[in-house]
């Protein structure tokens, strides 16, 4: 009986020792494997790259949020650019750029001419100076311009130096320009041409804002439900710029010349383009419209213009 008891105790001790040894061996084996672990192991790849990908996603989201906040701040600031241009109101297209050094008596440049035009349209110069810069009236900073600049500076409560300093340039550029009776220039002619092609002006315009132009502007404003002042206001300029133009028989201009050139290249018209939509051009347009399955109107309507803008190799030639 005693022998059996001792044997049982011995077995229990042996089982306990074997358990400890087994645990030790497993732990040793696992430890020995740690030195062999690398990113080449598939499981480690999954763990590492999954974690890395999540970190990258979080970084990208943070960067996007930062960019949005930066854009919001920029949008809330006045519109300026590194080139020296400032926010420009209106549709006056020959806008000058800001010259940090400024302009003074005796200087000549195209930029000075642009500022002289602003002073002229704003009423500070009665006419552009008689002197010329590169064949164009104006562009020379002379006494008349200096006096006009001083008058403008005084009215706008700027330092009245008579020089086109940076502050004065920025102020002039920011002014909305309107055109009225008595003024003249290529800018006025660009709006007159739109009125001419819309048939509010009968004769080809030359850039002089006369009484006939004032009447045409009023008629246009009435038709477009604008305030009928007869002045080319900002609102009227914007409306005119948005118009879709067609070219009627009897009209002329550089735009018509370009389309005549297309008709000549396709064989519908002979000779050289003259910019006049006369009877010969009208007949050529009719044939072109017939060949291209367009409504035969005899003038350059919207669909005909769209068709003629296609590349020549995609056009139907006259045979």
TrEMBL record:
Coiled-coil regions, chain positions: none
Residues that span the membrane, as ranges: 7-26
Keyword Transmembrane: yes
Compositionally skewed regions (Basic and acidic residues) per UniProt: 54-76
Ranges for region Disordered: 54-89
Molecular functions per Gene Ontology: hydrolase activity
Sorted UniProt keywords: Hydrolase, Membrane, Transmembrane, Transmembrane helix
Pfam families attached to this UniProt entry: PG_binding_1
Ranges of residues in domain Peptidoglycan binding-like: 109-172, 184-240, 252-308
Name by which UniProt lists this protein: Peptidoglycan hydrolase-like protein with peptidoglycan-binding domain
Species of provenance: Alkalibaculum bacchi
Phylogenetic placement of the source organism: Bacteria, Bacillati, Bacillota, Clostridia, Eubacteriales
